[in-house]
Amino acid sequence: MNDKQDPANLPYYTNHSKTKRRSGVSRLFVVLVSAFVLSFLGLRVVWLATSKPIFLLEVDDNVAVDPRLNVYQAIDAARECHEWESTSPDSDVSKVSFALAEGADLIFALTRGPIAGHFEMIRRTNYSYPDRETFVTAEVTTRSPDQATKVCRMGNEDKKERGVLIWRDAGLPLTSINVTIIIPLHLRSHKDVSTDLAMFSHSISSNFDDWWSPTYFRDMRFMLSEAPIDFDGLRARSVAVHTSDGAVRGSFDGNSINVQTSNAPISFSAFMEGLDAGSNITLRTSNATIEAMFGVSHSMVNTTVRAHVHTTHGAVRLLTDPFQSMHPNSTFMLNVSTSDAPVAVYMGPSYEGTYELSTTEARAEVDNDDNVEDPSEMGRQRTVQWTTNEEHDYVRGYSYWSHNGDPSREGMDRGAVKISSTKSDVTLYF
Fold this sequence. Notes:
The chain has helices spanning 24-40, 409-412, and strands spanning 12-17, 80-82, 85-86, 94-100, 106-112, 115-123, 136-142, 149-156, 161-168, 175-183, 192-198, 200-204, 217-225, 229-242, 248-260, 266-272, 279-284, 290-296, 304-310, 316-320, 331-337, 343-346, 353-358, 364-367, 381-389, 394-402, 415-420, 426-429. It is mainly beta. The chain has two domains: 1-51 and 259-430, no CATH class; 72-242, no CATH class. It has a 28-stranded mixed β-sheet that branches. Strand 25 (381-389) and strand 26 form a beta hairpin. The longest helix is centred in the N-terminal third of the chain and has 17 residues, at 24-40.
């Protein structure tokens, strides 16, 4: 857009464009370089689709809070507390390990008191414990065991809720432990997992995403603070993460993902189902960057995805549908906001709908590639229309596919994109 001349005496300039500033080769270079940068961060390159009904997703600070854990907050509710055992005569590591009954509707881990450490969830990779292969196992280790730190089995058999509580009386010095939940190798489908572990970094093993035999979960909630979380290839109906001052890195395949942190970056990729009522993505942080790629796991049907991406004082870079796998006529709703930092959003070719870009003391830009081919292979042409003001800090318009460039009301009304920042450029790439 910035190679066009703004009319001298008009506050707004409108363009119906089937041409572009950037050549197809250079645009492909931009996408590939961007994909390489994100891949370098350890993310998978994925692609995007979305929905129209709800544009602003509701922000819920308690999104990762599981109310079912309220009854397990006190040691008085414990079914059994276990003694620390030395792992070997030559080791200074002590351990508590016990099996949780199979078929749980909820697996959980929580701490109370001055305790910090690391939580890990893994899938067993061998049959070293054949008598436990139908059970989830909880292991807790430490290098500084004392009787003031209790490891207790918790749960309710009637509700099929089973988990572990690590308890330490308030006022005692901070101690460090590791908590590991081990999922049996041959069990592929599980229900809910919840944690309430302040000051515990989290890591979810990538071996749940085995190509031939992946492990699926229903709803997962990870509640932590002042610590990072890393999950790779997690498959679930929904995942909710809430932390603070901790980076979030992950990849996800499912229907709903909600990630909230502060003062730390988010690096994320997702395959969304987008079926029926559609899928929701929420990524929120502050004073840090967000880099993400969105895709759909059902490329042969129309999908609906809504995404809300927000930070402050941090750049945002989003790749959507870079490999053109989004099915035509799918719906995508995107709201991106930051402050004092640039935004770059790369839209997949299937996107149709409106868009609105705004900033202050900088430029709002649209970069349209007229060399892109019709993703439906029906020989249609894409029209990208835009209107800007004289300051070039606000742009609105729409994009649609049609035969002979004729207006398509259905396409123009299909999706919506809104991008805002302050004091930095915002750019939308078609």
